Amino acid sequence: MGESAATSAPVASGRVPLLGHGIQMLHHPLPFLQRQRDRGEVVKIFLGTRPAYVINSPELIHRVLVADADRFDRGRLFQKASALVGHGLATSDGPFHLRQRRIMQPAFGRLQVRTYATDMNAEVRRLVDSWKPGQVVNVSQDMGELALSVTATALFRAEIGKQAVQEVHRWLPVIVAGLLPRVVAPDGWERVPTPGNRRFTEARRRLRAIVEDVIESYRVSAGNQRDDLLSALLTARYDDTGEPMSAEQLRDEVITILMSGTETTASALSWMFHQLAENPEVERRMHAELDTVLAGRAVTHADIERLDYTGQVLRETLRRHSPLWFVMRRTTGPVDLAGVRIPVGSQVIYSLAALHRDPAVFAAPMVFDPDRWAPGRPVPDRQAFQPFSSGRHKCIGESFAWAEMTIAAATVAARWRLRPVPGRRIRERTLATLRPSTLLMIAEPRFATTAAPTTN
Ligand code: HEM
User: Which residues are the signal sequence here (predicted)?
Assistant: First the structure.
């Protein structure tokens, strides 16, 4: 269906023949997407010669994700990702996705997440025990490794799993770093035998093999009940057939969880420590809360409800530095958005990061202010603040992420103050997530002793 003149969207400025807006999207994508807000609720951009529609208001994002979700699928980029990393939740659609979502949801419920909290705590403590006073810590790297260890340990608690975790540390980063460039590259590029493509293919083969081995060993060992995520997924049954997931499907879901659950939380935690160092009063209040509520003991799952100010700091981090900054969908039927007729098969783009920096919703949006979330302050509309998205593809790991982020933030900040290394400017990097550039910080003990707190 063509667009009539009366319903066409304005085209973003700066379009270049053949490249479209590719240069802006490559070099400064987030400021470029944010600028489109001033042009209208729906703005047309060109990725090369292909048109795409950027949507800019909370109401339209809600229409795409929830109200009119039946008229959208994930689109071409996700299909390419699925060919590279399998048919897990994050790359599937329609009835297949819904069936997977149903069988997997219970493993991510709040009660189930509680059982992963002790291991989360142990992983964070292992990290902070390794720091020395005055040491320069690569926070972004440490948070990446921490998030991967937390997710992998929640998945595999058995002994075989522990060996697998080492291998996952080796191969998963190759896949995470290599996926987006391969997905946006011209079709067929991923099959060209460049050194990078060969390494990616090898990493995918090795990671699949490791995960398949662990699944097989869980299957043959009696009981399959280890209070971990993999056991929960192994014992889950489809409600229509009563059957479990196939080994292949389970493998794809495990790899999807490892990929979706690591960079996102690692980015958020890294930004949080950066913001604490930039905002001494926020840091002072968070430390005061940790000293009062924890009083030297280890963080438990129940503390998530008690650490109110820490929760505000994390919420503000997810607003100011929303990890998933760029999401795409594709129309499967004709859709009208704010009076603009969007043809079938069009790419629709929205940015949760741009949404959370909209001055019409958040006053002074670039200011880091956890008091926006203080009790008694007006709560922003749910459509205007949704770092975990909404609708059928809403993050399945939200409770997991909150538990992990709170336990990590509180365990680190109860014992260490992270100071910026002087003279280094931290920039935003728009990779798969919105990450800080290498974040080096100096670890200063908050108390004379850095001994581990007592558990109770
Ligand atoms: C701060 C941390 C996190 C943020 C901000 C985040 C954000 C998101 C968002 C925005 C989506 C929707 C993507 C879309 O619409 O296409 C999503 C999906 C997903 N997330 Fe997360 N996520 C986080 C942590 C996690 C963790 C810890 C896990 C697993 C342990 C996880 C697993 C997933 C999966 C499997 C999906 C696909 C869900 C589906 O399509 O049904 N995420 N996440």
Answer: none
